[in-house]
């Protein structure tokens, strides 16, 4: 036990399959031991004053204990979207610890340019940018999802000249189950199209909805399902569906998720083609969204606009279908591929092969070991 390297994990596991893959590896390893501070454990939501006092006392004790564990750890591993204050970053850096950061997204880019919730050149924007810069400046090792996103994020936060070790480990998810692909296998005549994710402009969902109007005009026998996470943020999309008279071919469902397996079940039993990314922003032309890797793990073929990150791994008409980022081009591509079931099946199978090679749990752990053992860099 004394020979094991102590790893202090910073961040949350609940919303990240990537973090859970890391946890699976570390817990089964005889090289590492780890500690993780779940701040929700001491969350004070009880109205009883005595319980509140006890929880507050134990919360303070836990913070002290957590900081001591932080100090004796050999490796500080910042999980995707993990939060760490600059004080602890600087302390770890001064003590010569390895600080490995999963630079999954830029907080500055997400809030200022993507979600547009923070105005550029404001105090809050500066604070977000400073957080990203601190992660880059004080980490010993940075993990990016691909070279395109690495260059994009480092450029956005003015750190292209960083001397920190950088690695690329692609998106990863566990294998779920092979989808039935009823239309592709001629079991059903109706083509089922699916999109899932968060309702942010990055994904270009409005274009996908608009494409359904053209599909309807072309008399394609199809149904389009949208799986989101928020009823309130789905309102504007439902309005667009209403305005275009598409309620007979489009259905929004915000009740299903991968966490309870309900979304897996629906996609496996029904989905024939899934959608990737169609946003207009600079970021949308660079990144690789999770939904594409999730689709590959289910054998489901994907149609998407081409991005720099996708271009690093995918080949059009071999393991993905690319099209221009506008509703008419998307509609035409759907009609085109729907007429060639053999090609759909081939793209599905080649997509899964690519998933096994680059985006599977096994591929992730193989790359992660190299980082933890510090063998080579990009």
TrEMBL record:
Transmembrane segments: 53-79
Limits of the Glycosyl transferase family domain: 185-353
Keyword Transmembrane helix included in the entry's annotation: yes
Coiled coil: none
Keywords of the record: Membrane, Transmembrane, Transmembrane helix
InterPro entries noted in UniProt: Glyco_trans_1 (IPR001296)
UniProt protein name: Glycosyltransferase, family 1
